[in-house]
Design brief:
Nucleotidyltransferase, domain 5; five-stranded mixed sheet; alpha/beta; about 575 residues; 5 domains
């Protein structure tokens, strides 16, 4: 071996040492003419190709950013305390690099993941997509038995043409699933049939099914209620009124305690308390009305109806304000004005006949919807777990029998059958009946034949996406994920698998740490993936972006084209 090159004073960083300088000698074989370069094995295990930060730092940054949801500044400060000098932009870059390494490791572990799932009898594929505003959809597939994220892909819509490549990737890596659980998207259904065949069992998530039924049943009335509230601007008016009354509450906390006491206090009020009591009472009623927006089990519409509750409470507040005005008398001093002003803020809303009719109509529909909700044992009203609820653990046969009873009740009621919305609801139930009430799946495993009951809901996906969004808010302080979804690596969500010890063991494959697994990945392959992610596919050329900002651009462009074409024709004539 002969010395081919030496690299002196290269500054590198690792967690266990901090910053240090490296002198590395590259060798090659001069005798056989082999041009292969042999580098220091120790450095290859510690650092990626052309990298100055060790694999341990990359893993640390990835875990802190995406598992612990730390900000770039927090991670930079942690590393600085360990004598690692790094900028926030470098932390961001290494975080994205971590996801690329994890994605490549996940792909290499596909065969081992497939073997593990076959020991369980197979896998049940749950698919769903999430998006924000005009961002692309993030499509994710999860095995419901192990809760392992299998693969992700960003797609422009749920059309079958976009979903088919995603499902083919999953099929190539893990084989055919036992069944597929999804929402009622026609694109999903057509894609599943195309990839897995016509005989693939497709189940409808009970939660998604009920949610779509509720939106179809009383979505129009609920939208109307929201619009009427917005038209009257009652929320803004009451927030302003509450702000002006807040000082009276702060000055008399004892008076507030007496208002909320279960035992009525007959202690004589002081003159100051008598003057401030109308303001305190008005403030309390306003806050009670706003608190109606926080009611519900955390399931979202149509299970929760915050705007309806707010409108209903406003009617009660208006009534109680009238009673208070009677108590204090019509000829009131200036201190009683909060009662009249608060009532005036609500008065137009109370007289809105369109709103009143919508509230009356939606009440009956919600009653029918809640009856079906109770029959299916999904999103119970007496539960506060929200999307963490996966449905009551009950034999599917009993649930099916209760839904049959509900169906008979609706069909037998002539008043309900007169309305199109109820007939459509029954038609939807009939259409998806077989996909809602599936028998347990019997499979052969190395341990013998077992029966697996499919999970009734796709809430595993809802919970998963909610964790992703919560982590994003913690890291960035931004509630919207639109820009993040456009820029992020689709496989960022694979990070959640690292919380699963079974998955982690398969990924390590006998090695001690993720750093050791990452060290085996070819640096050029990582670089190529990073390059792909660095340039968005739909990025507009800079020069195009500049000219379209011109005033009256379309007409100017046509004029320029005409000039160029005419000039070319005239030159062609001269040449001839």
């Amino acid at each position: 071996m002969k010395v081919g090159k030496t690299k002196c004073d290269r500054l590198v960083f690792t967690l266990h040492v901090g910053g240090f300088r490296v002198h590395e000698t590259w060798l090659n074989c001069g005798a056989c003419g082999n041009r292969e370069v042999y580098r220091a094995a120790e450095l290859k295990r510690l650092f990626p190709k052309k990298g100055n930060f060790g694999f341990d730092i990359i893993v640390h940054i990835g875990r802190r950013l995406f598992l612990d949801n730390r900000t770039l500044a927090e991670v930079k400060a942690e590393l600085a305390a360990g004598r690692v000098t790094i900028s926030e932009s470098e932390v961001d870059f290494l975080g994205r690099k971590f996801i690329v390494y994890l994605s490549l490791c996940h792909q290499r572990a596909a065969a081992r993941l497939k073997d593990m799932m076959e020991l369980n009898g197979g896998y049940m594929l749950h698919i769903d997509a999430t998006c924000e505003s005009d961002s692309p959809l993030l499509l994710t597939g999860i095995d419901a038995i192990t809760s392992i994220v299998l693969w992700n892909r960003k797609i422009p819509s749920e059309k079958a043409a976009h979903v088919i490549p995603f499902l083919r990737e999953i099929n190539d890596r893990y084989g055919r699933p036992l069944l597929v659980v999804m929402d009622m998207s026609n694109g999903f259904e057509n894609a599943v049939r195309e990839v897995f065949g016509e005989n693939m069992d497709m189940l409808i998530c009970h939660f998604h099914f009920l949610r779509d039924l509720g939106k179809d049943l009383f979505g129009l009335e609920y939208d109307l209620i929201r619009k009427r509230l917005r038209t009257h601007g009652v929320g803004a008016k009451l927030r302003y009124r509450a702000h002006s009354l807040r000082s009276a509450v702060d000055e008399n906390p004892g008076l507030v305690d007496r208002l909320g006491s279960e035992i009525i206090s007959r202690k004589q009020l002081t003159k100051t308390e008598q003057e401030l009591l109308p303001a305190v009472a008005s403030y309390a009623l306003i806050q009670w009305a706003f608190d109606g927006k926080k009611t519900g089990g955390g399931y979202g519409f149509p299970f929760d109806h915050p705007h309806l509750e707010f409108a209903t409470r406003l009617r009660e507040v208006f009534y109680e304000l009238g009673r208070l005005q009677e108590i204090f008398g019509q000829n009131t001093p200036r201190h009683n004005r909060p009662l009249f002003k608060t009532a005036n803020d609500i008065r137009k809303l109370i007289g809105d006949r369109i709103l009143l009719k919508a509230v009356e109509k939606i009440g009956k529909k919600i009653e029918v919807f809640d009856a079906l909700r109770k029959a299916m044992r999904i999103a119970p009203q007496d539960d506060t777990r929200g999307l963490n609820d996966n449905g009551r653990d009950e034999p599917i046969g009993k649930i099916e029998e209760r839904v049959k009873k509900f169906r008979r009740y609706v069909v037998a009621d002539p008043r309900l059958n007169e309305e199109t919305e109820y007939r459509k609801m029954i038609a939807q139930i009939d259409k998806y009946w077989e996909r809602l009430f599936a028998d347990p799946v019997t499979v052969d495993t190395p341990a013998g034949r077992i029966s697996i009951q499919p999970q009734r809901t796709n809430n595993i996906m809802e919970q998963f996406f909610r964790k992703v969004k919560r982590g994003h808010r913690r890291r960035t302080g931004n509630n919207s994920m639109t820009r993040t979804l456009k820029a992020m690596n689709a496989n960022t969500t694979l990070i959640k698998n690292l919380e699963n010890q079974q998955y982690l063991d398969i990924l390590l494959n006998g090695k001690e740490s993720l750093e050791d697994v990452f060290a085996e990945i070819d640096g050029d392959e990582v670089g190529n993936e990073m390059t792909k992610l660095a340039v968005p596919e739909d990025k507009m050329p800079t020069k195009i972006r500049k000219i379209i900002k011109l005033q009256k651009f379309p007409s100017k462009m046509v004029k320029s084209v005409r000039t160029m074409v005419d000039y070319s024709k005239s030159n062609l004539c001269l040449e001839q």
